[in-house]
Amino acid sequence: MTALDRIAELQREAEAAIAGATDPKQLEGLRLHYLGRKSELPMLLRGVGSLDPSQRVAVGSAGNQTRKQLEAMISAREAELAGGEIGERLDISLPGSPPAPTGHLHLITETRRDIEDVFLGLGFSIAEGPEVEHVEYNFDALNTDLTHPSRARTDTFYIDDATVLRVHTSPVQVRAMIAQPPPLYVIAPGRVYRPDNDATHTPQFHQIEGLAVDDGVTLADLKGTLLAFARQIFGEDREVLLRPHYFPFTEPSVEVDVSCFNCASGYLRDGSLCPLCKGSGWLEVLGAGMVDPNVFAYVKDYGYDPESVTGFAFGMGIERIAMLRHGIPDLRLYFDNDLRFLRQFGAR
Fold first, then answer.
1. 253: how many CB neighbours lie within 10 A of its CB?
2. The whole model's pTM is what?
Protein backbone atom coordinates (compact mmCIF):
# COMPACT_ATOMS: atom_id res chain seq x y z
CA MET A 1 0.00 0.00 0.00
CA THR A 2 1.43 3.34 -1.03
CA ALA A 3 1.60 6.37 1.26
CA LEU A 4 -1.17 8.04 -0.74
CA ASP A 5 -3.42 4.99 -0.33
CA ARG A 6 -2.76 4.90 3.43
CA ILE A 7 -3.57 8.61 3.80
CA ALA A 8 -6.87 8.09 2.00
CA GLU A 9 -7.67 5.09 4.20
CA LEU A 10 -6.87 7.04 7.39
CA GLN A 11 -9.13 9.86 6.23
CA ARG A 12 -12.06 7.51 5.67
CA GLU A 13 -11.58 5.88 9.09
CA ALA A 14 -11.26 9.18 10.88
CA GLU A 15 -14.26 10.77 9.18
CA ALA A 16 -16.45 7.83 10.11
CA ALA A 17 -15.23 7.82 13.70
CA ILE A 18 -15.66 11.60 14.10
CA ALA A 19 -19.17 11.51 12.68
CA GLY A 20 -20.08 8.78 15.17
CA ALA A 21 -18.60 10.52 18.25
CA THR A 22 -21.28 11.05 20.90
CA ASP A 23 -19.53 13.22 23.51
CA PRO A 24 -16.66 15.72 23.75
CA LYS A 25 -14.44 13.29 25.66
CA GLN A 26 -14.69 10.69 22.89
CA LEU A 27 -14.04 13.37 20.29
CA GLU A 28 -10.88 14.49 22.08
CA GLY A 29 -9.67 10.88 22.06
CA LEU A 30 -10.17 10.70 18.29
CA ARG A 31 -8.26 13.94 17.80
CA LEU A 32 -5.29 12.53 19.68
CA HIS A 33 -5.57 9.18 17.85
CA TYR A 34 -5.56 10.64 14.33
CA LEU A 35 -3.85 14.03 14.71
CA GLY A 36 -1.68 13.71 17.82
CA ARG A 37 2.08 14.18 17.47
CA LYS A 38 2.76 10.43 17.59
CA SER A 39 -0.22 9.35 15.48
CA GLU A 40 0.15 7.81 12.04
CA LEU A 41 -0.78 10.76 9.80
CA PRO A 42 1.70 13.22 11.32
CA MET A 43 4.36 10.50 11.20
CA LEU A 44 3.69 10.01 7.48
CA LEU A 45 4.08 13.74 6.88
CA ARG A 46 7.34 13.82 8.82
CA GLY A 47 8.63 10.96 6.61
CA VAL A 48 7.96 12.77 3.33
CA GLY A 49 11.63 13.68 3.04
CA SER A 50 12.63 10.01 2.76
CA LEU A 51 10.29 9.32 -0.16
CA ASP A 52 11.24 9.26 -3.83
CA PRO A 53 11.33 12.88 -5.09
CA SER A 54 8.56 12.12 -7.55
CA GLN A 55 6.19 11.24 -4.63
CA ARG A 56 7.08 13.92 -2.12
CA VAL A 57 4.83 16.69 -3.43
CA ALA A 58 1.78 14.46 -3.88
CA VAL A 59 2.09 12.78 -0.46
CA GLY A 60 2.82 16.02 1.35
CA SER A 61 -0.10 17.79 -0.28
CA ALA A 62 -2.53 14.92 0.38
CA GLY A 63 -1.40 14.58 4.00
CA ASN A 64 -1.74 18.28 4.80
CA GLN A 65 -5.13 18.49 3.12
CA THR A 66 -6.37 15.48 5.08
CA ARG A 67 -5.09 16.95 8.37
CA LYS A 68 -6.91 20.24 7.74
CA GLN A 69 -10.14 18.48 6.78
CA LEU A 70 -10.06 16.33 9.90
CA GLU A 71 -9.36 19.35 12.13
CA ALA A 72 -12.31 21.19 10.59
CA MET A 73 -14.54 18.17 10.98
CA ILE A 74 -13.60 17.78 14.66
CA SER A 75 -14.34 21.49 15.32
CA ALA A 76 -17.71 21.21 13.62
CA ARG A 77 -18.59 18.07 15.54
CA GLU A 78 -17.58 19.79 18.83
CA ALA A 79 -20.03 22.59 18.08
CA GLU A 80 -22.77 20.09 17.28
CA LEU A 81 -22.23 18.18 20.51
CA ALA A 82 -22.17 21.41 22.56
CA GLY A 83 -25.44 22.52 21.02
CA GLY A 84 -26.92 19.12 21.62
CA GLU A 85 -25.95 19.20 25.30
CA ILE A 86 -27.62 22.57 25.76
CA GLY A 87 -30.69 21.36 23.96
CA GLU A 88 -30.92 18.27 26.13
CA ARG A 89 -30.40 20.07 29.43
CA LEU A 90 -32.35 23.27 28.89
CA ASP A 91 -36.12 23.38 28.69
CA ILE A 92 -37.05 27.02 28.25
CA SER A 93 -40.62 26.27 29.34
CA LEU A 94 -39.40 25.38 32.85
CA PRO A 95 -39.09 28.06 35.57
CA GLY A 96 -35.63 29.54 36.06
CA SER A 97 -33.14 28.42 38.65
CA PRO A 98 -33.87 29.54 42.22
CA PRO A 99 -32.47 33.05 42.72
CA ALA A 100 -29.35 33.45 44.80
CA PRO A 101 -30.01 34.51 48.40
CA THR A 102 -30.51 38.26 48.58
CA GLY A 103 -28.51 38.56 51.79
CA HIS A 104 -29.54 39.90 55.16
CA LEU A 105 -28.92 42.80 57.49
CA HIS A 106 -25.35 43.30 58.66
CA LEU A 107 -24.93 42.37 62.31
CA ILE A 108 -24.30 46.02 63.26
CA THR A 109 -27.53 47.14 61.56
CA GLU A 110 -29.47 44.27 63.11
CA THR A 111 -28.17 45.08 66.60
CA ARG A 112 -28.87 48.79 66.12
CA ARG A 113 -32.48 48.07 65.15
CA ASP A 114 -32.93 45.73 68.11
CA ILE A 115 -31.75 48.48 70.48
CA GLU A 116 -33.90 51.09 68.77
CA ASP A 117 -36.95 48.85 69.12
CA VAL A 118 -36.38 48.58 72.88
CA PHE A 119 -36.26 52.35 73.42
CA LEU A 120 -39.07 53.10 71.00
CA GLY A 121 -41.14 50.75 73.13
CA LEU A 122 -40.16 52.78 76.19
CA GLY A 123 -41.45 55.99 74.62
CA PHE A 124 -38.25 57.42 73.18
CA SER A 125 -38.03 58.80 69.65
CA ILE A 126 -35.04 58.70 67.26
CA ALA A 127 -33.01 61.85 66.55
CA GLU A 128 -30.18 62.21 64.06
CA GLY A 129 -27.47 64.78 63.41
CA PRO A 130 -24.47 65.46 61.16
CA GLU A 131 -21.31 63.37 61.36
CA VAL A 132 -19.19 66.44 60.59
CA GLU A 133 -19.90 68.51 63.66
CA HIS A 134 -19.10 71.92 65.15
CA VAL A 135 -16.51 71.85 67.93
CA GLU A 136 -19.03 73.93 69.89
CA TYR A 137 -21.63 71.15 69.88
CA ASN A 138 -19.13 68.29 70.08
CA PHE A 139 -17.26 69.68 73.12
CA ASP A 140 -18.26 73.13 74.43
CA ALA A 141 -21.99 72.56 74.83
CA LEU A 142 -21.27 69.27 76.58
CA ASN A 143 -19.22 70.85 79.37
CA THR A 144 -15.93 69.45 78.06
CA ASP A 145 -13.00 71.34 79.57
CA LEU A 146 -10.51 72.98 77.20
CA THR A 147 -7.77 70.74 78.61
CA HIS A 148 -9.71 67.50 78.23
CA PRO A 149 -7.64 64.86 76.35
CA SER A 150 -10.41 64.21 73.85
CA ARG A 151 -9.88 67.69 72.41
CA ALA A 152 -6.32 66.83 71.34
CA ARG A 153 -5.71 66.36 67.64
CA THR A 154 -4.28 62.93 68.44
CA ASP A 155 -7.68 61.88 69.87
CA THR A 156 -10.10 63.54 67.43
CA PHE A 157 -10.29 63.95 63.65
CA TYR A 158 -10.30 67.73 63.03
CA ILE A 159 -11.60 69.08 59.72
CA ASP A 160 -10.48 72.58 60.72
CA ASP A 161 -10.19 74.48 64.00
CA ALA A 162 -13.98 74.76 64.35
CA THR A 163 -15.11 71.43 62.83
CA VAL A 164 -14.52 67.77 63.68
CA LEU A 165 -15.74 64.32 62.83
CA ARG A 166 -17.96 63.77 65.86
CA VAL A 167 -16.45 61.58 68.56
CA HIS A 168 -19.85 60.61 69.97
CA THR A 169 -23.50 61.18 69.12
CA SER A 170 -23.92 63.45 72.16
CA PRO A 171 -24.09 66.58 69.96
CA VAL A 172 -27.42 65.25 68.71
CA GLN A 173 -28.72 65.62 72.26
CA VAL A 174 -27.82 69.31 72.21
CA ARG A 175 -29.44 69.77 68.80
CA ALA A 176 -32.57 67.96 70.00
CA MET A 177 -32.90 70.26 73.03
CA ILE A 178 -32.48 73.34 70.84
CA ALA A 179 -35.17 72.02 68.50
CA GLN A 180 -37.72 70.97 71.14
CA PRO A 181 -38.55 72.10 74.69
CA PRO A 182 -38.98 69.53 77.48
CA PRO A 183 -40.24 66.95 78.10
CA LEU A 184 -37.79 65.23 75.78
CA TYR A 185 -37.05 61.52 75.34
CA VAL A 186 -34.74 60.74 72.43
CA ILE A 187 -32.07 58.27 71.35
CA ALA A 188 -29.34 59.24 68.88
CA PRO A 189 -27.86 56.38 66.85
CA GLY A 190 -25.11 56.83 64.28
CA ARG A 191 -21.48 56.63 63.20
CA VAL A 192 -18.73 58.27 65.21
CA TYR A 193 -14.99 58.63 64.64
CA ARG A 194 -11.83 58.38 66.73
CA PRO A 195 -8.22 57.69 65.65
CA ASP A 196 -7.97 54.22 67.24
CA ASN A 197 -7.41 50.86 65.55
CA ASP A 198 -6.98 47.52 67.35
CA ALA A 199 -9.00 44.46 68.33
CA THR A 200 -11.39 46.50 70.50
CA HIS A 201 -11.27 49.90 68.74
CA THR A 202 -11.84 51.02 65.16
CA PRO A 203 -11.50 54.50 63.62
CA GLN A 204 -15.18 54.47 62.71
CA PHE A 205 -17.78 52.78 64.88
CA HIS A 206 -21.43 53.15 65.93
CA GLN A 207 -23.07 54.51 69.05
CA ILE A 208 -26.53 54.93 70.45
CA GLU A 209 -26.96 57.65 73.04
CA GLY A 210 -30.09 58.49 74.95
CA LEU A 211 -31.47 61.56 76.68
CA ALA A 212 -34.51 61.91 78.92
CA VAL A 213 -35.47 65.34 80.31
CA ASP A 214 -38.58 66.04 82.35
CA ASP A 215 -39.75 67.24 85.73
CA GLY A 216 -38.46 65.11 88.61
CA VAL A 217 -36.31 62.65 86.64
CA THR A 218 -33.97 60.76 89.00
CA LEU A 219 -31.15 58.25 88.94
CA ALA A 220 -33.74 55.58 89.80
CA ASP A 221 -35.48 56.32 86.50
CA LEU A 222 -32.16 55.86 84.72
CA LYS A 223 -31.55 52.51 86.39
CA GLY A 224 -35.08 51.29 85.64
CA THR A 225 -34.76 52.30 81.98
CA LEU A 226 -31.41 50.54 81.58
CA LEU A 227 -32.67 47.46 83.42
CA ALA A 228 -35.52 47.20 80.91
CA PHE A 229 -33.01 47.61 78.08
CA ALA A 230 -30.67 44.94 79.48
CA ARG A 231 -33.44 42.39 79.90
CA GLN A 232 -34.73 42.93 76.38
CA ILE A 233 -31.26 42.65 74.78
CA PHE A 234 -29.45 40.15 77.03
CA GLY A 235 -32.24 38.10 78.65
CA GLU A 236 -35.03 38.40 81.19
CA ASP A 237 -32.86 37.28 84.12
CA ARG A 238 -30.34 40.11 83.80
CA GLU A 239 -29.60 42.65 86.52
CA VAL A 240 -27.72 45.93 86.23
CA LEU A 241 -25.02 47.42 88.43
CA LEU A 242 -24.16 51.13 88.55
CA ARG A 243 -20.55 52.03 89.42
CA PRO A 244 -19.38 55.61 90.08
CA HIS A 245 -17.44 57.17 87.22
CA TYR A 246 -16.75 60.53 85.57
CA PHE A 247 -18.02 62.07 82.34
CA PRO A 248 -17.90 65.82 81.61
CA PHE A 249 -21.56 66.04 80.66
CA THR A 250 -23.17 64.07 83.53
CA GLU A 251 -23.10 64.47 87.32
CA PRO A 252 -23.27 62.03 88.98
CA SER A 253 -21.82 59.69 86.33
CA VAL A 254 -21.89 55.90 86.35
CA GLU A 255 -20.56 52.94 84.43
CA VAL A 256 -23.31 50.40 83.87
CA ASP A 257 -22.69 46.66 84.09
CA VAL A 258 -25.08 43.84 83.26
CA SER A 259 -24.98 40.49 85.04
CA CYS A 260 -23.09 37.93 82.97
CA PHE A 261 -25.33 35.74 80.84
CA ASN A 262 -22.60 33.14 80.27
CA CYS A 263 -22.05 31.98 83.84
CA ALA A 264 -23.24 32.01 87.44
CA SER A 265 -21.26 34.42 89.62
CA GLY A 266 -18.14 34.37 87.45
CA TYR A 267 -17.61 30.61 87.14
CA LEU A 268 -18.79 27.99 84.70
CA ARG A 269 -20.45 24.73 85.74
CA ASP A 270 -17.13 22.89 85.61
CA GLY A 271 -15.68 25.36 88.11
CA SER A 272 -13.49 27.18 85.60
CA LEU A 273 -13.30 30.95 85.33
CA CYS A 274 -15.86 32.44 82.93
CA PRO A 275 -13.96 33.69 79.86
CA LEU A 276 -16.58 36.38 79.15
CA CYS A 277 -16.75 38.24 82.46
CA LYS A 278 -13.28 37.08 83.67
CA GLY A 279 -14.74 35.84 86.95
CA SER A 280 -16.43 39.10 88.00
CA GLY A 281 -19.98 38.04 87.17
CA TRP A 282 -20.59 41.41 85.48
CA LEU A 283 -20.10 42.82 81.98
CA GLU A 284 -19.52 46.52 81.33
CA VAL A 285 -21.96 47.70 78.67
CA LEU A 286 -22.29 51.51 78.74
CA GLY A 287 -21.77 54.83 80.46
CA ALA A 288 -24.54 57.02 81.86
CA GLY A 289 -25.48 59.62 84.44
CA MET A 290 -27.65 62.56 85.33
CA VAL A 291 -27.31 65.48 82.92
CA ASP A 292 -24.87 68.06 84.29
CA PRO A 293 -26.58 71.43 85.03
CA ASN A 294 -23.91 73.14 82.89
CA VAL A 295 -25.25 71.28 79.85
CA PHE A 296 -28.76 72.52 80.58
CA ALA A 297 -27.37 76.03 81.10
CA TYR A 298 -26.10 76.01 77.50
CA VAL A 299 -29.68 75.47 76.23
CA LYS A 300 -31.45 77.40 79.01
CA ASP A 301 -33.04 79.79 76.50
CA TYR A 302 -34.80 76.83 74.86
CA GLY A 303 -36.69 75.82 78.01
CA TYR A 304 -34.05 73.80 79.85
CA ASP A 305 -33.61 75.78 83.03
CA PRO A 306 -31.31 73.68 85.26
CA GLU A 307 -33.30 74.87 88.27
CA SER A 308 -36.55 73.36 87.00
CA VAL A 309 -35.73 70.28 84.89
CA THR A 310 -33.63 67.20 85.40
CA GLY A 311 -32.63 64.43 83.07
CA PHE A 312 -30.43 61.45 82.45
CA ALA A 313 -28.22 60.47 79.53
CA PHE A 314 -26.51 57.27 78.46
CA GLY A 315 -24.34 56.06 75.61
CA MET A 316 -23.27 52.68 74.30
CA GLY A 317 -21.24 51.24 71.44
CA ILE A 318 -23.33 49.09 69.12
CA GLU A 319 -20.30 46.96 68.22
CA ARG A 320 -19.72 46.35 71.93
CA ILE A 321 -23.29 45.17 72.46
CA ALA A 322 -23.07 42.84 69.45
CA MET A 323 -19.73 41.48 70.67
CA LEU A 324 -21.22 40.58 74.03
CA ARG A 325 -24.38 39.05 72.57
CA HIS A 326 -22.57 36.89 70.02
CA GLY A 327 -19.13 36.27 71.54
CA ILE A 328 -17.21 38.12 68.82
CA PRO A 329 -13.51 38.48 69.76
CA ASP A 330 -12.35 41.22 67.38
CA LEU A 331 -14.15 44.39 66.24
CA ARG A 332 -12.35 44.33 62.91
CA LEU A 333 -14.32 41.25 61.86
CA TYR A 334 -17.32 43.53 61.34
CA PHE A 335 -15.56 45.39 58.55
CA ASP A 336 -13.48 42.67 56.84
CA ASN A 337 -16.45 41.71 54.61
CA ASP A 338 -15.64 38.02 55.04
CA LEU A 339 -18.83 36.20 54.02
CA ARG A 340 -17.91 33.23 56.21
CA PHE A 341 -18.30 35.55 59.21
CA LEU A 342 -21.25 37.61 57.99
CA ARG A 343 -23.40 34.62 56.99
CA GLN A 344 -23.44 33.40 60.59
CA PHE A 345 -25.74 36.26 61.51
CA GLY A 346 -28.74 36.03 59.22
CA ALA A 347 -32.12 37.49 60.06
CA ARG A 348 -33.64 35.66 63.01
1. 19
2. 0.69
